[in-house]
Amino acid sequence: MSKQFDVIVIGGGPGGYIAAIRAAQLGFNVACIDEWKNEKGGPAPGGTCTNVGCIPSKALLQSSEHFEHANKHFADHGITATGVKMDVAKMIARKDTVVKQNNDGILYLFKKNKVSFFHGRGSFVKAAEGGYEIKVAGAAEESIVGKQIIIATGSNARALPGTPFDEELVLSNDGALRVGAVPKKLGLIGSGVIGLEMGSVWRRLGAEVTILEGLPTFLGAVDEQIAKEAKKAFDKQGLKIELGVKVGEIKTGKKGVSIAYTNAKGEAQALEVDRLIVSIGRVPNTIGLNVEAVGLALDERGAIVVDADCKTNLPGVWAVGDVVRGPMLAHKAEEEGVAVAERIAGQHGHVNFNTVPWVIYTSPEIAWVGRTEQQLKADGVKYKAGTFPFLANGRARALGDTTGMVKMLADADTDEILGVHIVGPQASELISEAVVAMEFKASSEDIARICHAHPSLSEATKEAALAVDKRTLNF
User: What is the pTM of this model?
Assistant: First the structure.
């Protein structure tokens, strides 16, 4: 007889493992199925985020930033560093260690919260009495039955038509994290999060990096003023970013990769690189889920159709994270995972898309929450804007990083904060204050009147709030 569970979660990424743990905490008998494997074939839960996304990319960004500081910025502090070299193999090994620590941490949390873990691929078999039968295809095939099913199967990298990933010359985010030596010339297609972060890593280590972007504007989803400030910084660093290009034929050979394209003026161009990273977005992952067996509805993009509560068209079946609508962000998946577990328990799970923060972990970091100035103009919303540059912030001067600014947008009538946009040092941490403020419907005056530590980068947020009403303290 198949093992019976109250809740079965298919997928052990941020949405899946968080949902499983929260459901177990709420008293349910929970199983989580995940097929990620480490080099030895053992379980490696955590999904794309932990294995080939958020976590390993941050490890490489940190290593490469240390290297650049030692080579270019230590002297400003009176530190002499000569003969600084990067051992790429050791850097990659450290990244792998960080990943494994996170994998092991998830397995520990499963054990601590009494979540039954199944290592393999989960797929629907049929609707069963009191729920659904799920097949687990792993080292040994078995079937389990769950009353409630949460699908959290994530997404896969989108390949260019006619140019599949070989993870040797043409790389997805996976291959980009396993490059064994610094390429002399590196090409990237797509100037989104992955393109900018991976481009930054290898540029710092000495690669000549060219990024080709099809859109005519840089970081179109980001507030225009912030995007322009970031573009100036990247240009100064030596990242070559070409906008408005149309990529043509891509050829691979013994010497690397050749990319034919036309530039924004319509002129034919060719780019020769050692390796090419393609980061043109991601597609929902329903491969092998066998949705046809139960009639689970997908949309035209291949995403699972859900309502505002993450319910699918099937009773007792839910879906969260990259495999459904909304931003493909790990923390968005986590919020949905918690909310679904709580909804199954009869509680009122909470996810507010308007306060989901976005971060690009480059240097300078870019982070934002809420609406941009161009969105407010397009929607006809009357607003006030305040900005404050890190150039005038004492802590930023002491850090030696005064690039960028904080920008705050507030309703012209009510003063409610509508959006906060940051480019500069530790923007990924600073944005959390804005998220909390917006969740509690704070006004810009609320931020302006809160005591911030001095000296701190967060004072720039306070100064931006003050600037909304044309006031300033000029720390």
Answer: 0.96
